[in-house]
Amino acid sequence: MKIGILLTDHVIDKLIPKHGDQDSFYLNLLPKLNNKVSLEIYDIEKGEYPDDINKCDGYIITGSKVSTYDNLPWIRELENFIQLLHEKRKSLIGVCFGHQLIAQTLGGKVEKVGWTVGTHKYKYLQRNLNFNLPENLRLIHSHQDQVTQLPENALLIASTETVPNAFFTVDNHILSIQGHPEFTPKYAADVASTRKELLGKEKYEYALNTLSNDLSDNKEGAIMWLNFFESNL
Asked: Is 180 designated active site?
């Protein structure tokens, strides 16, 4: 199974020596969970796309520090690619920014509502899907924007206390989730530390507490991704 990683951002320079760049998060996770999985990396900010969407069995749109509503040409180009994948019913996963951009592209709404950081528990609203969900799911969050209105054809799967539209699907070929199964707690803690003043004392301490205690189910979340892709092969 080949998965295309649609890379929409890079780790800040000072954290790369310790954590690697964003592509390494996926390279160090998915193929290790299933040795039949290979990844193809596309740097979307540089305009890199597959010459044939069937080159990969499915795609993941990563997180990004920019907002979906920023006036950037590469975001508009990525929206066109999302529409193409949707029309062809190609398997697609959106993570954080990717989650938000899928919602926006398909008619939903994304707004800035304030920082959500640290690890958050998901409450399932639906479980009867064509792929297996983890029994429990707690994921790392790091974002200011949220999906405030779902696309009309979206099925809400789960919410958190602070993110009502945290996880949705569209038909059987799109999975869209706000949290980060690919993040390690140590990386997320270091990112939070770079934003300490922006977050404020309460949110910063919440982030460090939940991340230092490693309360995330990132492995389970990544296995869920693979289950989703396999269900559409």
From this structure: yes
Using CA of residue 186, residue 190, residue 195, residue 196, what is the dihedral sign?
Answer: positive
CA pair distance 170, 166, nearest whole angstrom = 14
d(CA 30, CA 14): 25
**Active site residue: 96, 99, 141, 143, which one?**
96
Are the C-beta atoms of residues 222 and 216 closer than 8 Å to each other? Answer: no
96 is catalytic: yes
**How far, in Å, CA of 31 to CA of 57, rounded?**
14
pTM metric for this prediction:
0.96
> How far is 109 from 102, CA to CA, in rounded Å?
10
CB neighbour list of residue 165: distance below 8 Å, 6 or more residues apart: 103, 146, 147, 148, 149, 150, 156, 159, 178
Query: For the segment 99-115, what is each residue's pLDDT rounded down to a tens digit?
Result: 999 999 999 999 999 99
Q: Tell me which of 19, 120, 143, 180 is the catalytic residue.
A: 180
Residue type, 82: I
Give the model confidence (pLDDT) of 33-45 as tens digits: 999 999 999 999 9
